[in-house]
């Protein structure tokens, strides 16, 4: 069991009230009665544990002293290796036999739906269950100064930047990020600090709670990085997502802060529906602003026209400068001077799978990136083009997200890949014609449904000096290692 805090009332009170407590086994008038030997930890079993969010919850629960087990159907790095390093036991699949583990509560990820055999057994037996976001809110975020990072793009990177800025500012933050920040080496951390950074996803909470995850978090500092249409499997249109963002804004207190992208019309509409919190603009003259980046990677950071310092780092692109402004501004709200935040980001190492170099073979560089939305694909390619100049870029794409599989973004896909010299697309299990979507690219594109043949085609095309950018929000069948091996055999 887990106890956040206990209020012991005067012994003359007839009815004792315990605030923010659970799992109390006994009490007498005015006093909580327990033995120091009582184990206050709980056993939680996480369904869908290998997702980045649920895997992070597993890490936090383990660090809090709870017994953690979990199950999933698909296991791949970096989350699988992180869970193994934490000593968390994984069960393959969703067998109903897992109820024999007898956990105190089942924590349900949003990959689990009705019809899942384990979930059906839990429901039939009336066993206790809770969503991941609600468990996080009740057991970790309560009484914390929550700094939430929301937006269609850049949540993971900005969350990692913000956590690092707070760390360098001496605030020792806890965090839950949808990736592995390389400055920390883990996607989640629990500390005794009052500050906690959380990547605030707009995706739905669970099959039994269709609100966005971030509605549970109640941040004091909220970053709204951007807002485009995405998650077509659960949102009908952009207006539906704007409503969820408005619900998030409604939870930020009056003494909090909302940092918002000053150029996003969608976010302007969100704030126009009501905002009771001070607002600071990002990438705007009257708020936080970044200058153009020099060839050496340096740019100036200003706030309301006053220069705060110069930031020099290896990250590329206007999107990363925007992310930096959000992190510096949010850290400043928590008490970290902008100068300290700027110095911290000069030492920032990007999150795994964000333009991560996986290897160089025969002077051919292979990168891994999480990009899976046309806007993110275009931004990532433009950033790499700035870095490599006229060198050839071979873009390798797996349209894996639910939105991409539905074909909602297919009409903008070709344009997003325009900066690449060659495009290789893995077209398996898609409900739309990839060839038609990529036809504007002409003979630059190759579409294959067999992963082995795709690897062979890329390796046969690659030349010394090329840069191969692999983009997927999944494991992509271990294509990076297979590709490096194939290049080595050329």
UniProtKB/TrEMBL annotation:
InterPro entries: Mpl, Mur-like_cat_sf, Mur_ligase_C, Mur_ligase_C_dom_sf, Mur_ligase_cen, Mur_ligase_N, MurCDEF_pg_biosynth. It holds the Pfam family Mur_ligase. GO terms for biological process: cell division; cell wall organization; peptidoglycan biosynthetic process; peptidoglycan turnover; regulation of cell shape. It catalyses: UDP-N-acetyl-alpha-D-muramate + L-alanyl-gamma-D-glutamyl-meso-2,6-diaminopimelate + ATP = UDP-N-acetyl-alpha-D-muramoyl-L-alanyl-gamma-D-glutamyl-meso-2,6-diaminopimelate + ADP + phosphate + H(+). The keyword Cell membrane does not apply. Pathway: Cell wall biogenesis; peptidoglycan recycling. Residues 353-474 form the Mur ligase C-terminal domain. The keyword Transport does not apply. Keywords: ATP-binding, Cell cycle, Cell division, Cell shape, Cell wall biogenesis/degradation, Ligase, Magnesium, Nucleotide-binding, Peptidoglycan synthesis. Its cofactor is Mg(2+). Residues 149-331 form the Mur ligase central domain. NCBIfam families: mpl. Belongs to the MurCDEF family. Mpl subfamily. This is UDP-N-acetylmuramate--L-alanyl-gamma-D-glutamyl-meso-2,6-diaminoheptandioate ligase.
């Amino acid at each position: 069991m887990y106890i956040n805090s206990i209020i012991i009332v005067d012994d003359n009170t007839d009815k004792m009230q315990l605030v923010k407590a659970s799992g109390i086994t006994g009490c007498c008038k005015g006093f909580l009665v327990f033995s120091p030997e009582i184990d206050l930890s709980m056993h939680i079993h996480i369904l869908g544990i290998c997702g980045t969010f649920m895997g992070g919850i597993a890490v936090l629960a383990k660090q809090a002293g709870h017994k953690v087990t979990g199950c999933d159907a698909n296991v791949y790095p970096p989350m699988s290796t992180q869970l193994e390093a934490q000593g968390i036991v994984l069960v393959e699949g969703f067998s109903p036999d897992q109820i024999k583990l007898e956990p105190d509560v089942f924590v349900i990820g949003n990959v689990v739906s009705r019809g899942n055999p384990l979930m059906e057994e839990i429901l039939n037996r009336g066993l206790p269950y809770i969503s991941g976001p609600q468990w996080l809110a009740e057991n970790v975020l309560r009484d914390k100064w929550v700094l939430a990072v929301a937006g269609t793009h850049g949540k993971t990177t900005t969350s990692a930047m913000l956590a690092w800025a707070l760390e360098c500012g001496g605030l020792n933050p806890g965090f839950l990020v949808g990736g592995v920040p390389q400055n920390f080496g883990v996607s989640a951390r629990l500390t005794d600090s009052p500050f906690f950074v959380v990547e605030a996803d707009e995706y739905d909470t669970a099959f039994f709670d269709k609100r966005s995850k971030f509605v549970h978090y109640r941040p004091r500092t909220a970053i709204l990085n951007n807002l485009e249409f995405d998650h077509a499997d659960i949102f009908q249109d952009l207006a539906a997502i704007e409503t969820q963002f408005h619900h998030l804004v409604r939870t930020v207190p009056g003494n909090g802060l909302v940092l918002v992208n000053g150029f996003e019309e969608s976010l302007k509409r969100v704030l126009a529906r009501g905002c009771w919190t001070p607002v600071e603009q990002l990438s705007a003259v009257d708020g936080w602003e970044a200058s153009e980046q020099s060839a050496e990677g340096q740019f100036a950071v200003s706030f309301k026209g006053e220069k705060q310092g110069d930031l020099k780092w290896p990250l590329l692109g206007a999107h990363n400068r925007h992310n930096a402004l959000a992190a510096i501004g949010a850290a400043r709200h928590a008490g970290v001077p902008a100068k300290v935040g700027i110095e911290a980001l000069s030492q920032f190492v990007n999150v795994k799978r964000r333009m991560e170099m996986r290897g160089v073979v025969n002077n051919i560089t292979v990168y891994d990136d999480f990009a899976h939305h046309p806007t993110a694909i275009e931004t990532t390619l433009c950033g790499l083009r700035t870095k490599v100049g006229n060198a050839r870029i071979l873009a390798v794409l797996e349209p894996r997200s639910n939105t991409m599989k539905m074909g909602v973004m297919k009409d903008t896909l070709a344009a997003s890949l325009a900066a690449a010299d060659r495009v290789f697309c893995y077209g398996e299990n898609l409900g739309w014609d990839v060839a038609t979507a990529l036809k504007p690219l002409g003979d630059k594109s190759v579409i294959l449904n067999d992963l082995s043949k795709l690897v062979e085609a890329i390796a046969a095309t690659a030349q010394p000096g090329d840069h191969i950018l692999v983009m997927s929000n999944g494991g992509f069948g271990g294509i990076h290692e297979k590709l490096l091996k194939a290049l080595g055999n050329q």
